[in-house]
Amino acid sequence: MKNPISCDSRNRAYKNGKTFEDCKAEARKKTQMLSNEIQTNNEISWKYILEVANHDEIVYKLTLKYLREMGYNIGNYLSPKVIKNYNNSTNSSSSSSSNNNKE
Fold this sequence. Notes:
The chain is mainly alpha-helical. The chain contains 5 helices and 2 strands; from the N terminus they run ααβααβα.
């Protein structure tokens, strides 16, 4: 019979032997630190985030995901930087007013 731990994809080791849960926890910590830097500097580059993530692809991608969830504009390949999203409150109020106009 096969060892159930080795067949369980949830126990897969990522860079430096970390589990996915370890990567998520590390990304959350880095997201908080980077959020403070974005508030101070108004933007940070993807390259800088990759350096902070120690070139760990999973942590890097999770960090971008968490920054987007916090409301930051994470950019795209044409503009590889994370900036404050000033239109966050404007978009939600305009969409609710447009719904009222349809009635």
